[in-house]
Amino acid sequence: MSTPAAIELDSVTVGYDRRTVCRNVSLQIAEGSFTVFIGPNGCGKSTLLRTIARVLRPQAGRVTVLGRDVRGYGRRQYARTVGLLPQGIEAPAGMTVTDLVVRGRHPHRSALSRWTPQDEQAVTEALTVTGTAEFGDRVLAELSGGQRQRAWLAMLLAQDTPVLLLDEPTTYLDIAHQYEVLDLLADLHARGRTVVAVLHDLNQAARFATDLVVLHDGSVTDTGHPSTVLTPNLVADVFGLRCRIVPDPVTGTPAVFPEPTRPHPSLGPR
Amino acid sequence: MTTVPPLGPALGPPLRPPLDPALGPGRRTLRRHTRRAALTCLVVLLLSAGLAVGALASGRYATPLADLWPVLTGGGDPGLRFILFELRLPRIGTALAVGAALGAAGALFQSASRNPLGSPDIVGFTVGAATGALVVLLVLDGTPLTPAVGTALGGTAVAATTLLLGGTGQRLILVGIGLCALLTSVNAYLLTRAEVTDAQNAAVWLVGSLNGSGAHLPLLVGTLTVLLPLAVLAARGLRLIETGDDKALSLGVPVRRQRRTATALAVALTAVGVAGAGPVGFIALAAPHLARRITRVAAPLVTTSAVLGAALLLAADQLAQRLVPGQQLPVGAVTGVLGGGYLALVLAWTWRGGSR
Ligand SMILES: Nc1ncnc2c1ncn2[C@@H]1O[C@H](COP(=O)(O)OP(=O)(O)O)[C@@H](O)[C@H]1O
Ligand SMILES: [Mg+2]
């Protein structure tokens, strides 16, 4: 371990009410990494991300961020350190893009303080970088899915945190917009942020991640660089899919191609 | 095989100041919102003032404006004095106070429940208020408890029960529906057991009316002076909760606590309104809704909603006094019809025009 851990989970058990989703998870996420969580639906990716974001409280275990127990942070202080883009977030009625991005500054403003040049700077930068400035005065509900997702990203950027958590930031976007979002995240990563994202597309995960975290049934089954982690055996074990893995012709990262499936017996021969 | 992930288009160096914060998009948006809300409040306040003057000058004994001034400044005809100070002014004041309380309560409810149709009814307030009034009128008849106190107590008790059992979100609504169903049958049972005159009397209380109101005006105004500023403060936190619980939590907002505070304040404000005029419907729903439409600001607009609620109830009460010649309708009947129409229009609009 050369780089220090930005996020460290120590025997974390977490779930909802009496139902435990993740049991005894220990995990280290390196500072400055682009870490991608992969795993089948319902395996606990969102649960784990929400736990790191301090939205969910672990039933047992400890979460450490930048060397400090998360329970030791104040609310706003934590919100200045870790930002979250939740999964499937809904646009509040009537809100405009700039409206939303301005709200991202909340943890930097005290109850009575005025809007500062730093606030304005952060908002302008977030709008510019995400390309949302041109429709800043439009209502979220009237935008396309891609534009709306970029608005949420702009809000996250305005929060200006060293650690970014994103839960399925590309879902529901067309392929061009997916890569637009991923490129933006790669840029933020290149500028020194620690990025942790949940992605469903394994090929995209392999392209962009410096580290993969594989989750299955609430446990971490594997971590490491995509080229070592992503193997046909892993995909078969975790996703139940037989596949071949070849180098991505563009980047050389592993790319997953499923084997043909057999028709369902009840359908008879093809 | 180690590969560097491809970078997107270079972002260039971060934008540097000089950036005048007055000119940036953030500042502009914030300022525009403040202006729109303030302007709306001002216009509505002027309208209410006009309405109030009109209400003072008219009634069963029409009063020329020229005769009003001497009375208001301490002189004038004693008979007119009585009509103005004992009848008309308290009624206008009560309408304004109750409207403001319900408008502010609605703004908090809609925002805290993230539901544009959220209102005190969600937590069973109105039905509970009715039960309270019925119990006072029909069961505790002869005790010093007034129906006004009964409605406030009943509504608050039911709302508190719903909130304690239901928490927030989906479960809250289900618990609310359950309790409503239960109490509706209790109410019906109580009415079947009552004398006809008592039942008639109670029926007016169930609709909400300003007839003969005004006795509690100083108490109403006093309570509002405390509750409204608290409501404005509570709304600041709700502004962020509107982006979703997870998002708000990750922005450092104590979501549960703020939602609980806002809901408690909304219940208290509703109780004040209901104690003043009975469970007048639709003001709590329509005022915040209108406030958002007029200002086009997506935030819980407590002040604007309170001002709008006051104007709406005053206008509705004036209508109620005039609509049927020689008869005073309960104001709740008018707000019910107007509010119902408004709701139908808005829903039709929303479905036709997509999400907005
Ligand atoms: N709010 C909740 N209350 C109860 N159970 C939940 C809640 N959210 C998720 N779960 C359950 O926890 C499990 C893991 O969910 P989640 O972390 O969302 O999975 P993933 O993001 O990997 O698809 C699922 O079985 C899901 O049904
Ligand atoms: Mg998920």
Automatic annotation (TrEMBL), chain A:
The keyword Cell membrane applies. Pfam families: ABC_tran. It is a peripheral membrane protein. It is found in: Cell membrane. One of its GO terms (cellular component) is plasma membrane. GO terms for molecular function: ATP binding; ATP hydrolysis activity. The keyword Transport applies. Gene3D superfamilies: P-loop containing nucleotide triphosphate hydrolases. InterPro entries: AAA+_ATPase, ABC_transporter-like_ATP-bd, ABC_transporter-like_CS, P-loop_NTPase, Siderophore_ABC-ATPase. Its main location: membrane. This is ABC transporter ATP-binding protein. CDD domains: ABC_Iron-Siderophores_B12_Hemin (cd03214). Keywords: ATP-binding, Cell membrane, Ion transport, Iron, Iron transport, Membrane, Nucleotide-binding, Transport. Transmembrane segments: none annotated. Residues 7-242 form the ABC transporter domain.
UniProtKB/TrEMBL annotation, chain B:
Keywords: Cell membrane, Membrane, Transmembrane, Transmembrane helix, Transport. One of its GO terms (biological process) is siderophore-iron import into cell. Signal peptide: none annotated. InterPro entries: ABC_BtuC-like, ABC_transptr_permease_BtuC. The chain crosses the membrane at residues 37-57, 92-110, 122-140, 146-165, 172-191, 219-241, 262-285, 297-316, 328-351. Residues 1-20 have a biased composition (Pro residues). It is found in: Cell membrane. The keyword Heme does not apply. One of its GO terms (cellular component) is plasma membrane. The keyword Transport applies. GO terms for molecular function: transmembrane transporter activity. It comes from the Bacteria. It is a multi-pass membrane protein. It holds the Pfam family FecCD. Residues 1-27 are annotated as: Disordered. Belongs to the binding-protein-dependent transport system permease family. FecCD subfamily. This is Iron ABC transporter permease. It comes from Micromonospora radicis.
